[in-house]
Amino acid sequence: MGKLDGRVVLITGAARGQGEQEARLFAAEGARLVLADVLDEQGRAVADETGGRYVHLDVSREEDWAAAVALATDTYGRLDGLVNNAGILRFNELASTPLEEFLQVVQVNQVGAFLGMRSAIPALEAAGGGTIVNTASYVALTGMAGVTSYAASKAAILGMTRVAAMELAGKGIRVNAMCPGAIDTPMSNPGEGVTSEALDALYGKLVPLARIGRPEEVARLALFLTSEDSSYITGQPFVIDGGWLAGVSLF
Ligand code: NAD
Fold this sequence. Notes:
- The structure is a single chain.
- This protein is an alpha/beta fold.
- It has one domain (8-181, 226-231): NAD(P)-binding Rossmann-like Domain (Rossmann fold, 3-Layer(aba) Sandwich), CATH 3.40.50.
- It is built from 7 helices and 7 strands; from the N terminus they run E-H-E-H-E-H-E-H-E-H-E-H-H-E.
- The protein has helices at 17-28, 40-50, 62-76, 99-126, 148-168, 196-204, 215-226; strands at residues 8-12, 32-37, 53-56, 81-84, 130-135, 173-180, 237-240.
- A 7-stranded parallel sheet has the order 3-2-1-4-5-6-7, with helices on both faces.
- Strand 1 (8-12), helix 1 (17-28) and strand 2 form a beta-alpha-beta unit.
- Helix 1 (17-28) packs parallel to helix 2 (40-50) and helix 4 packs parallel to helix 5.
- The longest helix is centred in the middle third of the chain and has 28 residues, at 99-126.
- The N and C termini lie far apart (46 Å).
- The mean pLDDT is 97.
- Nicotinamide-adenine-dinucleotide is lined by residues 12-13, 15-19, 37-39, 57-60, 85-89, 108, 135, 137-138, 180, 182-183, 185-188, 215.
């Protein structure tokens, strides 16, 4: 028995990184998947390997969302879960962040999560309830220099998660958020000569568990929040950061 047997789940940003690992784990646990991204070739390959359907979905575009949810209901007859995973990161100091860049990050991370939740509600309700997992960040809860636009968008995701959880509980829809620290994906590792070992050495100095996180570990949290294992949990942010937020160490 898989933890997601019979459930239909839409995962955004599923072409690589955390979304890809969520797709692989959810498929292994029996889910039927709609995988969405703007990286069509990579996304299609993950869909083929996991037996899912791929859809080109720019999460910032309302009309793309309607088509993605329709693909789930047309193909499988229902939608039980949404993982809002797609996101982008831009580094810039506040004083030199162009408005255009700020709005681009908000459009993908914040508006994308808003549109995703809003678009999925009717199908989740029609299925008798379901789950939404939003991907926020460690920087939704604490500061980090150089990421004004990203931190703003991720804090907004936590705000929306709480409101949505309250409004949707009566429809049987649970809404939670994940707050990853540093995770070894293309977002945190441009990959040009930077090995996972080098990242472990860097984060070994910052993080109590002394390494960078793996996307497979975030996928296991997403599975928990999408499955019945979390049946009495809604409206909460879940930190997955190797202890980074626990405090500072002098030793
Ligand atoms: P990633 O860059 O490997 O994956 C992000 C995916 O989102 C990519 O496949 C990308 O093509 C897709 N995407 C980007 N813009 C999109 C759009 N407009 N529409 C649809 N898809 C789009 O990074 P990741 O680490 O796997 O990131 C997954 C999520 O985790 C993101 O929301 C990110 O902000 C969050 N996060 C990552 C870290 C980290 O350290 N890697 C830490 C905290 C939170």
